[in-house]
């Protein structure tokens, strides 16, 4: 058996010899240590990368990545035809969703369409409105009163009746809407999405920010359109179609699984702080309630009001009651003109909300009355 010096001599002389046990073991451990270091560095870089794109820092990286792997539906030639007919020159469309409960005669659909007819400069926008219906009855009603209707596949869920706030059907309806809007963006169409309980009183395009990708109404507006502490309302948004908004909507939709049991607006209120938004370069702006008001926070100067929303209100009857009065208020205000002067007067004020003001309290009382052992006291 050769000693170490002999082995060294043979190696230096360039001769082949059988490797000894000791050098092989040392090389193996060196390889293992290098591999461990490489794996550690790789994992460290992966974590750093993930922290940059993952808005939920305590969740795995695969989750944030999955938000960009949304599976879009197959092309729908019927939708493409409806959208093409309704689109403005730049491809922008106005969208609302409708089910049977809101489509009944003298209900929200009629009030919604009426607002376009009596609004200041809004009637011409009706030709760009696509009504997306969630059931056959709503579709039949839509085609009877409006030229651009599309029936959305609701994937076996029945959305025809009134979906009460925060029930399972309500949540499904809200998230199906977000999913559909992703498809519209991927088609290349910018859009204004509006709830049907929003009255269009003046042209809202006059009040949109020119440099923003995603603009959303507010339940509570704090005076600065870039302040993330503003409380958003997903019932009214203006979204420009580009790769930034597509990524954002997919991320928004995927985030529903992180916050189960919450609707799109509450989830948006959480993810609006995500570092993903500035990372993809999307410019988000909140719309001033002085121009885009509602029952949560009302703009008092009617001459500045573009839209009014029956938000902070539950119950179809409550909304219909107060929106009828709201349109009367607007009509009275707007008709105070002289001659051909179409600039409205500023001497009127809103007389709403009325029934909506106490709708949540009455709704809770109604639920309590239905609990076992509770008897509702009625006067004779």
Topology:
Blueprint: H1 4-12, H2 21-53, H3 61-66, H4 77-86, E1 93-98, H5 100-103, H6 108-118, E2 129-133, H7 136-145, E3 149-151, H8 168-186, E4 191-194, E5 198-200, E6 214-220, E7 231-239, H9 243-254, H10 264-271, H11 276-280, E8 284-286, E9 292-294, E10 307-309, H12 316-334, H13 359-370
Parallel strand pairs: 1-2, 1-4, 2-3, 6-8, 9-10
Antiparallel strand pairs: 4-7, 5-10, 6-7
Helix pairs in contact: 6-12, 8-9
Folded structure, characterized:
The protein has 380 residues and is α/β, with parallel strands linked by helices. The chain has a domain at 77-294: Alpha-Beta Complex (Spore Coat Polysaccharide Biosynthesis Protein SpsA, Chain A), CATH 3.90.550. It is 42% helix and 12% strand. The protein is built from 13 helices and ten strands. It has helices spanning 4-12, 21-53, 61-66, 77-86, 100-103, 108-118, 136-145, 168-186, 243-254, 264-271, 276-280, 316-334, 359-370; strands at residues 93-98, 129-133, 149-151, 191-194, 198-200, 214-220, 231-239, 284-286, 292-294, 307-309. The strands form two sheets. It has a seven-stranded mixed beta sheet with strand order 3-2-1-4-7-6-8. Strands 5-10-9 form a three-stranded mixed beta sheet. α7 links the parallel β2 and β3 (149-151). Residues 1-24, 43-72, 158-166 and 373-380 have low confidence and may be disordered.
